[in-house]
Amino acid sequence: MKKTLIKFSKGKGVTLVIVIAVVVIFFSILKKEYLSWDNIRGIMYAMSLTGTITCGMACLMMSGSIDLASGAEGMMGGLVCAMLIARGMAFPLAIVLCLLMGAVFGLINAFLSNVMNFMPFIATMAMSSVWQGVGAIISGNSTIMITDRAFWKIGATNLWIFPLPFIVMVVLLLVYGWLISNTKIGRQLLLCGGNRNAARLAGINFNKISTIFFVNNGVIACIGGIILASRMHNGTVGNVVGAEMDGMVAAIIGGVSFLGGGSSGMGVLFLGILMLTCFKSGLYIINLNAYWMVCANGVLLVIALIVDFLRERARLRSLKAAPHSQKS
């Protein structure tokens, strides 16, 4: 525990805590309602969706891949779940079928990226359009209402002061944090993303690792979509779409490299999710014009990519300097 705290204090954690504090103070000065309990609960609910999507996205980015269809996959998870429940299927079975569907989404992405050798960025962007179109076709581009009150409880239940979706997100972060730090597949994941040639020489099958985490990302995206459908009491083509960008930004802010490999731990990733959500919540609460909000989100993404670029360049410099320091 002591070593973890020391690592946290020397890493990006303290910087993110300071940035979050500045963001919170800034928006609370502009609007006192920012620190109201209703807004804090709203931030936790917003974090639950962004954080859930980020869990799958971050692991995939660590492996050196990316899935820009995550939002559309989450939309399909919530939409198909709503359609199945509306047709009388018990919601536990509907959820299981939708999670299996998410696994199929991941397999399709893995096939396009690893077998057809398409760039993951382009392949998954194309699949995002496909799933949005399929969602509009099967739903008639209409909202599917959910009347099963038992299903509503997934998105509305509170454990003490924390919404259940928020707790699900925290549990996922803890599970993946343990997985990456303490298991063979976690070490293989980081090696594949950090140095694919070294991973190949070590006998690691990159396509296998990539496929596992593409499938994982598809399932996680559908979990996020199902939870949102439960909270909103409906499934619609507009739900979740675009969440992949928030997931990517939160992951980069939380120390995951866009080029693969790097990770500062799930505690820092949680702070990245919190920082992004606090920032976006502040934009909403001050009633920023929608066009400026889109602009602000774009600027934040650019800043995150610049930080990632500088971080990666510093890492490469340190690696080049290491042999010289050893010789001296």
Structure in words:
- The chain is mainly alpha-helical.
- It has a single domain, classed as ABC transporter involved in vitamin B12 uptake, BtuC.
- The strands form 2 sheets. A two-stranded antiparallel ribbon has the order 1-4. A two-stranded antiparallel sheet has the order 2-3.
- A hairpin with a 2-residue loop joins strand 2 and strand 3.
- Helix 2 runs parallel beside helix 13 and helix 3 runs parallel beside helix 8.
- The two termini are 35 Å apart.
Quaternary assembly: single chain
Question: Which structural class do you get from the secondary structure elements?
Answer: mainly alpha
Give the number of domains. Answer: 1
- Count of DSSP E strands? 4
Mind telling me which CATH architecture this is? Answer: Orthogonal Bundle
Strand order of the largest sheet: 1-4
CATH class: Mainly Alpha
What is the CATH fold-level name?
Answer: ABC transporter involved in vitamin B12 uptake, BtuC
Unreliable runs: 1-10
User: How many DSSP helices?
Assistant: 14
Radius of gyration: 20 Å
Helical percent range?
over 70%
Order of helices and strands: HHHHHHEHEEHHHHEHHH
Largest beta-sheet details: 2 strands, antiparallel
- Looking at the structure, what is the overall shape? globular
What would the average pLDDT be, to the nearest integer?
Answer: 87
Question: What percentage of amino acids are in beta strands?
Answer: under 5%
Give the termini separation.
Answer: 35 Å
